[in-house]
Amino acid sequence: MKLFLKRYRRRLGAFLTALFLMLAIGLAGPSALPDGAQLIPSATAQPTPIRRINPAAISAYLYEQLPNFPLENQYVSSDTGAPATENTLISRLIRYHIYIKNRPTVFRLDWKLTLADYLGAYERIRPNSYVDYGLRENPYAGDIAVMESLSVEQRNTLVNALYEAFTTADEPSTNAPEPTADEPATSSETPAASPTPAAPSAAPPVAPPAAPPVAL
What we know:
Elements: H1 2-28, H2 55-65, H3 89-100, H4 108-118, H5 140-149, H6 152-167
């Protein structure tokens, strides 16, 4: 028993000593370390770059992949009085998913939750939370009716298309920023090669002057 208590006291003393040194170094900072000793830098998370998302551009791309999907772009713009053809059902779904529900765009499950909202199976959409984005008539009721009329296969196809549009390398959601005054605009055309100056032609050899005749 005495031997056990002796070992326990030694281990406890070593632990307390190590803990004291760690606290002392943490409070004093790197200056308390011996010469040549360095603290191991902790891994810091790098900020995720912000990408500009254009729902109208993404929806146009998706309608190319899903040509039979309902457009629902017959609603009239409150600004121009003409049909807002770019304001489609898919573009409004994307805006609701990103700007109203603040859901990620790179997971199929989140897109399925958004479609479940339209069906009233997850978080029921309220008319006052469904932004019309400049339309004279709120398309809330029409969009809900169209989504309810889709088959399970059509909904799954839409979810897969949305997921792929936001995760593929060539997604159409990121637009190149406009060039600034300090940064000239770049062009995709290959500049014409400048003509290579012709090498100067070699001068004709000059014959050395004839030596004067020597009298014998």
